[in-house]
Amino acid sequence: MYDFGLVGLGVMGRNFILNVADNGFSAFGYDLDAEKVNSLKNEGGNLEQVDASTNIKTFVKNLKQPRKIMLLVPAGKVVDAVIESLLPHIDKGDIIIDGGNSFFTDTDRREATLQNRGINFFGAGVSGGAKGARKGPSIMPGGSKSAYEHIKPIFEAVSAKYNGEPCVAYLGPKSAGNYVKMVHNGIEYGLMQLTSEIYDVLRKGGDHDNDELHDIFASWNAGRLQSFLVEITSEIFKQEDTLVKGRLVDQILDKAKQKGTGKWTSQNAMDLGIPVPSIDVAVSMREISALKDERIKADALYDRPTVQHMEKAQLTDLSEKALYFSFIVTYAQGLHQLADASKEYGYQLDISVIAKIWRAGCIIRAGLLADITEAFKAEPALPNLLLSATFVDKIKDTVDAARKLVAFGATNGIPLPGLSNSLTYFDAYTSSKLPLNLIQAQRDYFGSHTYERLDREGIFHTEWEA
Ligand code: 6PG
């Protein structure tokens, strides 16, 4: 009998099941595709501990009870179909874990339906791509706390480790895990947009070539910007193309695709009334990038300023600071959203635990997350990272560079929307006085919507004189 079952032997599933076996737990896989079942053992690993079948009955029969069945299949209808196909064969007390990027309300629906039938359902975000799935991902599970005890030893063994600590923890009930993974991806979109802007400003504003870009990002990765995304960015600039002479990055079409998790983060932030402009604009930029044909036409219609190059060392220094600043601001927005969603949906999230399990394994892992973990440990109810004493000096040290870089981009026609939204968010969030008193006056003027006053309590309306 096997300790763990896995449905879906695609790239993620195959790597995850082999990881389970590598860590001493026996695992049985299931996929309708015989090719995937047969090739499972081609990649090496602890193969005595792993097997698979195309037959669902064989799959289920081979699992120890309570069965722990993880699904790594595409989000959406496939998840419902797999659950339906499992139900006739499994028993009360068994556990189904959805490891995909499912929309959180789908997870709530599935959890409620399955709970009625005595089945425990988990939405568990898994981050780290194929390599992470095999070598140690960050795992974000949500569901029944008592049922988690059954999967905890396996998840802790397979997850990434940060100073020996597993990058997995029980996060909360219902869709807490999927929700946290969704916001993880929103932050991921934000950080990716920011790195792409820095790349643009360095190549257009400082004429840095790919070798220099490699060196710059590699040196940043050895400093306070240490992170998976900065690290892979440095490596990307080195990759030679195999079809034409030169670097691959220069041949890749500048249209970014998306599967929806960044957009969901923005949409839900709007629903909650939590501002996440660095994430919003990252989604918008993928949308603008998709309009390649229109962009080409529009480019021909308008003149752009001639770029006034900045001295390389100065530009690099400003860029490092601006990127660090805007990374902090982007994490701040995402974590703010999580804290608010936790109240709204009853997740009881501990933000320090989330930051802790993001320190390794996941796409947004970064040195910064160690500081973020400490900040939320010290002040669990911290409404916003920008209010943390740990971060005040880091922001003060870098905000002026962000201003200079955003101004440089605006003057030279280099679009830096992620950086400027991060800066604007910071300026607005740290303004004790905003001009929104005027908006209240306008609302009252044209619609008698009323307003409050600075100097006394109450709700007021004025018959505005023309
Ligand atoms: C991860 C990633 C992953 C996501 C990809 C693609 O944490 O491993 O977030 O789950 O699917 O990043 O996302 P987009 O196609 O939307 O860019």
From TrEMBL:
Pfam families: 6PGD, NAD_binding_2. Gene3D superfamilies: 6-Phosphogluconate Dehydrogenase, domain 3, N-(1-d-carboxylethyl)-l-norvaline Dehydrogenase, domain 2, NAD(P)-binding Rossmann-like Domain. It catalyses: 6-phospho-D-gluconate + NADP(+) = D-ribulose 5-phosphate + CO2 + NADPH. Keywords: Gluconate utilization, NADP, Oxidoreductase, Pentose shunt. Pathway: Carbohydrate degradation; pentose phosphate pathway; D-ribulose 5-phosphate from D-glucose 6-phosphate (oxidative stage): step 3/3. It comes from the Bacteria. Residues 177-465 form the 6-phosphogluconate dehydrogenase C-terminal domain. InterPro entries: 6-PGluconate_DH-like_C_sf (IPR008927), 6PGD_dom2 (IPR013328), 6PGDH_C (IPR006114), 6PGDH_Gnd/GntZ (IPR006113), 6PGDH_NADP-bd (IPR006115), NAD(P)-bd_dom_sf (IPR036291), Pgluconate_DH (IPR006183). One of its GO terms (molecular function) is phosphogluconate dehydrogenase (decarboxylating) activity. Its EC number is 1.1.1.44. Catalyzes the oxidative decarboxylation of 6-phosphogluconate to ribulose 5-phosphate and CO(2), with concomitant reduction of NADP to NADPH. NCBIfam families: gnd, PRK09287.1. Homodimer. Belongs to the 6-phosphogluconate dehydrogenase family. PANTHER family: 6-PHOSPHOGLUCONATE DEHYDROGENASE (PTHR11811). This is 6-phosphogluconate dehydrogenase, decarboxylating. It comes from Maribacter confluentis.
